[in-house]
Each structure stands twice: as structure tokens, then as C-alpha cells.
Specification:
Length: about 500
């Protein structure tokens, strides 16, 4: 094997005509869809100090108002009317609350007047009030029979549930009735058993009935799923739990702040008229220029951007060097410049010049090496390698061995991916030295030393079936693509969506 990398570039002369010839012969390998490439910078919108002060003033007013609100109904209404987060009507144990409030809320002196805050957490101003304290089990073990609602407005499930309740009150076996009558497929196979569950795991009505009941209670509870007949089997020892009300308001940029950042983005967009100006002025104001390459017309995402579809549609309406106005994407404004256009068809020589020149030079090197080998009359690879390397300083022929090569071999040790080499090997006879031929990484000459015949398969039915299934799975997709290509249909949906 003579590697291309070991042949000096100076051995061959690469003319522009060679590059163009290679491009024309191989351009079908570079078929492409229409695409656009662009550069962009972002103007992020963050809350200003004034924005934070506005929210702080609001939460301080709500603190005064909440001090005079008592009773779960009044408190829940207050929270739901004022807070970003709705009232959570559930008891929690110590350790489940934020560290900012946990110790104060669970203090032995805490009562219905206890409040914590305002304080900032996770980008929001928060205010917490203790609503209720109770001794409740940490976990409950129960079983249930669900009589589901079959048709909206129908009450037959209620009648059925009442009948099951009567059977249980008269001593019928709960597990047997659950197995035969429950509409909960997950628990009916276990005789209705749900195992242990913590507070808040089940829907509210189910949860409250279980955690306020006692061991042995037989309960009838209605939820959105239907009627549940519940038996409480076990409970952990009661612990202190609390119910709290949280009023929160996220600190977000105001419309005034948005307008100010928009003005900055718009000023930048208006002062740049080319890619060069775009990059230069971005550097002046400390902005990082990011790149989005080869965007297809139907593309819906650009890494790091929130819903950039409008940006991509814009890129297909303008010419290179065009600078956009500001696009609002979430909490940022984006300004872009179109850097290049690729039309559907074959990549131009200029687009792939670097790799084309490399491949064209490889081909010239391959032809040179093959010519030198053809001039030599050695009959074995060892002599060929020795004589060529000894007589030609540009040669460094290496004799390598490869074992256990199969037709499906993908890589050869020390050589890499060489499908042409595999094909030539399987088209040759044992003991005969091949002629020189071009591979991916170099020029090869080989001789087969050992050959093992494949075992004869008497019945090829299974293989035929497998291959047929593979082809069949591709037929519909390939046929559709062929019809689509030949129909010359232009999909213009991307201009509007």
C-alpha cells in the first residue's frame, strides 16, 4: 500500500483544469437542497432595577393585605386572584418546604398569623402565610374499588357503587369484589390494593378522605374518575403537617424595558449594511456573533433560539449581505445578516473547492503511483514494495497483512474504510497478485494467501424473507420520493408557516 499522505505534493502538478474536471466528474456526489446561512447577535432583555422595585412595591402591599385575611376559603381566593401560582390546598411535612421558610413555619410558636417574607427565590418575590397545622399520618396504605363513569351525565355508576358498598357492609370479600368489579386495571389484579402512598399522591378528594380517616374505615368518595370505595388498611404515626398560602410574582422585564432593548437592537440594525460591518460593529459593542448554517426552507429550529421560524422565512426572502430588523424571540431581540445562499441542485465548485482540490490531487497521485507500479515487473508484493521504495525516494510502500476479511467487513485494521479494496479482493483468485488500484487512503496491490469458502446453505427461505421484508419496508418511502421528484411539485407552505 502506498498512502497518499506519504507522496509529496510536489510530485504532481495540480492545474485549475484538473480541479474543474474532477468536479464535473463527481458533482453528482454533492447534490444539495436549497439552504441559507446567516449570522446573528442577540440583545437579551433582563428585568431592570426599576422593574424589580415595581414588583417589590406590589408584594409589600400584598403583605399588608394578607395579614388581615383568614380562613381557607378567603385565603385561597386571595392567592388565586393575586399570585402567579394558584393556591395548593394540601398538607406537607417538615423538610418539604423551601429552606427559606421551613424552620419558621414549623416553629412551635407558629400560628395562623405567622408570615414569612417578602423574599426573593427562583426569580420571584414570594410571601408565605401559615394557613393550618394538623397531626396527620405521613403515609397511608389502602385498597379501593373504582366504579368509573362510562357516559357523561349517566348515574348508573353511582347505583352500582352503592350496591357494592352494601355488599361490603354485609361482609362480602373486598379483594374478590375488587378483582371482579373494579374499573382500575392497575389495582384490580392486586385485589384493589394500592400499597403505601404519601400525601398529595392521589387526587384531592381521595387524598383528603384517606389522610383524615382511621384504620379500618370504609369510605365512599367521588372524583373525576368515578366513585371510589376505599378501605384504609394501615397508617403511619401522625406527625405535624402544615398547609400554607404562597403569593408570588415573577420579576420580569416591563414593556418600558423591552422598548429600550428594542431601540438598541434597531439602532444596530440600521447602522450595518454588510456582513463585514455587521461583524465589526458587533465586536465594538461586545456582542458574540453566532452562526446558523445551511438552514433548509422548512427548518423550524436554530440551536439556542426560541421559535426562530420568522427568522428563517426572512432568510428566504432576501439577498446575501442583507441585515434584518430586530426579531423578538422570547426575552431577546435578534438581528441577523444573510451570509450565503445555496440553490437546489449541485454544490458549486467554490462551495466545495477545498475538498475537491484534495480529492483531485489524490487522483493525480494515484495515477502517478499506478504508472510507476505498472512499469515494474515484480511478481510478488514484497519484491514490488522493496524495489519501488529503493529506486524511488517518493515511495514508502508498506506490506501489511489482513486476516478474516469478509464481504461485509467495514474497516480493515491499519487501513480504515476501504470498500474498493474489499470488492477487489472478492473479485480475485488465490495466489494472483492484483494490479494497482485507487482506494480512499492510498493505492493498493494485494495477493490472496488463504481463502475459506462460505458454508453452503441448503435452505435460503429465511434469508429471502428477511431481504424481502427489508426491501418492502423501503418501497413506499422510495416510490413516494421518486414520484415527488419527478412531479416537479414546489412546496410553498414554508413561506407562510
Amino acid at each position: 500500500m502506498q498512502r497518499y499522505n506519504d507522496v509529496p505534493d510536489s510530485i504532481v502538478t495540480l492545474e485549475e483544469s484538473d480541479v474543474k474536471k474532477y468536479y464535473e466528474e463527481h458533482k453528482k456526489e454533492h447534490e444539495q437542497k436549497a439552504s441559507r446561512s446567516l449570522e446573528y447577535i442577540s440583545f437579551d432583555v433582563f428585568p431592570s432595577n426599576d422593574d424589580s422595585l415595581l414588583i417589590e412595591d406590589w408584594i409589600n402591599r400584598k403583605t399588608e393585605e394578607l395579614q388581615d385575611v383568614y380562613g381557607i376559603e378567603e385565603i385561597s381566593s386571595f392567592v388565586n386572584m393575586n399570585s402567579d401560582t394558584r393556591f395548593a390546598d394540601i398538607f406537607v411535612k417538615q423538610g418539604m418546604l423551601s429552606s427559606a421558610i421551613d424552620s419558621t413555619i414549623f416553629d412551635s410558636d407558629a400560628d395562623s398569623t405567622t408570615m414569612v417574607g417578602p423574599y426573593i427565590e427562583d426569580g420571584s418575590y414570594k410571601l408565605v402565610k401559615l394557613v393550618e397545622t394538623a397531626m396527620r399520618p405521613d403515609s397511608v396504605k389502602a385498597r379501593h374499588i373504582l366504579v368509573a363513569i362510562k357516559v357523561s351525565g349517566d348515574t348508573s355508576h353511582v347505583v352500582k357503587a352503592d350496591s357494592i358498598m352494601d355488599l361490603l357492609n354485609n361482609g362480602s370479600d373486598f379483594a374478590l369484589l375488587a378483582t371482579t368489579l373494579s374499573d382500575d386495571p392497575g389495582s384490580k389484579v392486586e385485589g384493589g390494593e394500592l400499597g403505601w402512598f404519601a400525601e398529595g399522591t392521589m387526587v384531592k378528594a381521595f387524598n383528603d378522605s384517606c389522610f383524615s380517616g382511621s384504620i379500618g374505615d370504609l369510605l365512599r368518595v367521588e372524583t373525576q374518575f368515578g366513585v371510589h370505595i376505599i378501605e384504609i388498611l394501615e397508617m403511619t404515626e401522625p406527625i405535624i403537617k402544615v398547609k400554607i398560602a404562597t403569593v408570588d410574582r415573577r420579576i420580569e422585564p416591563s414593556s418600558k424595558t423591552f422598548a429600550g432593548i428594542y431601540a438598541q437592537a434597531n439602532k444596530f440594525a440600521g447602522s450595518t449594511k454588510s456582513v463585514e460591518e455587521f461583524e465589526g460593529k458587533a465586536e465594538e459593542i461586545g456582542k458574540v456573533v453566532r452562526v446558523a448554517q445551511d438552514l433548509l426552507e422548512g427548518e423550524k429550529s436554530i440551536v439556542g433560539l426560541d421559535s426562530p421560524r420568522e427568522v428563517i422565512r426572512w432568510a428566504y426572502k432576501v439577498e446575501p449581505e442583507t441585515v434584518s430588523g430586530p426579531f423578538e424571540l422570547g426575552n431577546k431581540f435578534l438581528v441577523a445578516v444573510l451570509t450565503s445562499i445555496k440553490e437546489e441542485g449541485y454544490a458549486t465548485l467554490e462551495d466545495i473547492r477545498a475538498e475537491t482540490e484534495i480529492d483531485a490531487r489524490k487522483e493525480k497521485k494515484a495515477n502517478y503511483v499506478k504508472t510507476k507500479i505498472a512499469e515494474n515487473d515484480d511478481q510478488n508484493v514484497e519484491d514490488l514494495a522493496y524495489n519501488l521504495s529503493a529506486n524511488n525516494k517518493e515511495f514508502d510502500l508498506q506490506v501489511e497483512s489482513a486476516k478474516n476479511i469478509t464481504f461485509s467487513s467495514f474497516n480493515l485494521a491499519g487501513v480504515g474504510r476501504e470498500p474498493s479494496l474489499i470488492g477487489h479482493i472478492y473479485g480475485s483468485k488465490k495466489g494472483e497478485m492484483s494490479s494497482a488500484f485507487k482506494g480512499n487512503s492510498g493505492v493498493f496491490v494485494f495477493v490472496i494467501e488463504e481463502y475459506t469458502a462460505a458454508p453452503v446453505v441448503e435452505d435460503l427461505t429465511a434469508s429471502q424473507s428477511r431481504l424481502g421484508s427489508n426491501v418492502q419496508a423501503r418501497v413506499e418511502y422510495e416510490v413516494f420520493n421518486a414520484l415527488k421528484k419527478n412531479a416537479n411539485v414546489v412546496d410553498n407552505r414554508f413561506k407562510f408557516y
